[in-house]
Amino acid sequence: MEIFKELLWYWYIYQDRTASEIQQLFHQHLLEISNASLDTVPVPFLPSSIRTLQRRFQEWDFIKYSQFQFYPSLETRLWVLFYDMGLNDTEMIGFLHKEGYPISIKI
After folding, report:
1. CA distance 14 to 61
2. CB 81 within 8 A of CB 51
3. Can you give the pLDDT of all 107 residues of the chain as single tens digits?
4. pTM confidence score
5. DSSP secondary structure of 33-77
6. Rg (CA), the chain
7. How many whole angstroms separate alpha carbon 62 and alpha carbon 4?
8. Judging by beta carbons within 10 Å of its beta carbon (0-12, 13-18, 19+), is residue 47 exposed, middle or buried?
9. How much is the pLDDT for 51?
10. Residue 39's pLDDT is what?
């Protein structure tokens, strides 16, 4: 499953899918790349249960923040603040707070 880590992250974090939805998507994906039935796909690549996926997500530190909100303009604003103005993280957070973005640094 390690080779599919980025794809699983994309589904889990970026597309905000549940573990059961990801398990279904993952099985469909494996079927597409193998062009065969699940019986011909090597067993180690198939998560046996939803709990297996959840455990992997925990091992890989996939953390879903329930209050995440995407701002399309934020990417451009971060680019300007960092590359054009040369601000550090703390200074950027200050500017973004003044502009009304509820953002913080998570380490």
Report:
1. 14
2. no
3. 678 888 888 888 878 888 888 888 888 888 787 765 555 555 455 556 788 888 888 888 887 765 556 677 888 888 899 999 999 988 999 999 998 887 777 65
4. 0.50
5. HHTS-GGGS-GGGS-SSHHHHHHHHHHTT----TT----HHHHHH
6. 19
7. 14
8. buried
9. 86
10. 54
Residue type, 33: I
Distances (CA, A) of 73 to 70, 76, 80, 96, 103: 9, 6, 11, 11, 13
Q: Is the dihedral of CA 13, 17, 18, 24 positive or negative?
A: negative
Tell me which residue has tokens 């957070």.
93
> What is the token pair recorded at 78?
């971060």
* Contact indicator for 53, 22 with CB cutoff of 8 Å: yes
* Separation between Cα atoms, residue 43 and residue 61, nearest integer Å: 24
Long-range contacts of 5-14 (CB under 8 A, 24+ apart): 5/60, 8/53, 8/56, 8/57, 8/62, 9/60, 9/62, 12/57, 12/62, 12/64, 13/62, 13/64
pLDDT the model gives residue 83:
92
Residue 26 has which token pair? 């993952």
